[in-house]
C-alpha cells in the first residue's frame, strides 16, 4: 500500500491522549497532594491573621529606680498572657489539623499514604505560615520594647508599655519544632483513627481492590490432612 505523496504532515492524524479509566479520579494523586499542601498553607496564613486579633497583649511598665537603673515589670497577672497567647496559637492549629484530617478523608479516591504525607507536610506548612504571619502582624501592631530608650526621668519615673504576644512557648529550637510538628502529629492521628474504622483494606480508594470471597467450609467434608493412625 503506497502513501499519498500529496498528504502533508498537518493532515496526519494527531496522537490521542490516553483516556482516563472509567470511574477514576480526574486529578492525579501527586497533583492532589500538592493541592492539599498549598490549601493548608493558605489556611495557616489566615489562621495567623485570626490569632493576631484574638491573642491578648502583655501590659507592663518600665520604671526608674532610686539608684538610676531601669526596671521592667508586668502589671498584675499580665505575665500569664505569655502562656495564654502561645496556647491559643497551638490550639487553633490543632483545630485546623483535626478539621483538615476529617475533610481530607472525604476525598475518597485518593485515600492512602500519599495524602497522609501531604496532610502532615501541609499541617507543618500551615503552622509555619501562621507563625510568620501572626508574629509579623502583632509586632507591627504593638512594636518592640526598648528599655534603654524608654522616656523615664527623675520627674517621670514610670512609663507604661504594651508588648506583643508571643507565638511560641519559648525561643529554643526544640520548643519551636514542637509547636510546628504537634499539629501535624494530631492530623496524622485523626486520619489513622478514621482509617482503622473502615472495613475495606483499600480504604475505599481508587483503584478498588476486591477482597476474594472464599466458600464456606462444609463440616461434612473429610479433613484435608489425614490424622496419624492411632496405636
Which features would summarize this protein structure in a list?
elongated; 8% strand; DUF2567; mainly alpha; 231 residues; three-stranded antiparallel β-sheet
How does this structure look, described?
The protein has 231 residues and is mostly helical. It has one domain. It is 45% helix and 8% strand. It is built from four helices and three strands. The chain has helices at residues 29-54, 81-105, 113-142, 173-196, and strands spanning 58-64, 70-74, 158-163. Strands 2-1-3 form a three-stranded antiparallel sheet, with no helix packed on it. It starts with 28 loop residues before the first helix and ends in a 35-residue tail after the last helix. Pfam families: DUF2567.
Largest sheet: 3 strands, antiparallel
**Strand percent estimate:** 5-15%
Categorize the overall geometry.
Answer: elongated
- The percent of residues in helical segments reads 40-55%
How does the helix and strand content classify structurally?
A: mainly alpha
Order of helices and strands: HEEHHEH
Q: Indicate the mean pLDDT.
A: 82
| C-alpha Rg (nearest Å) | 31 Å
Number of structural domains = 1
- Uncertain regions spanning at least 5 consecutive residues: 16-20
Ends distance: 83 Å
How many helices?
4
Strand order of the largest sheet: 2-1-3
**Got a strand count?**
3
Pfam families: DUF2567
InterPro entries: DUF2567
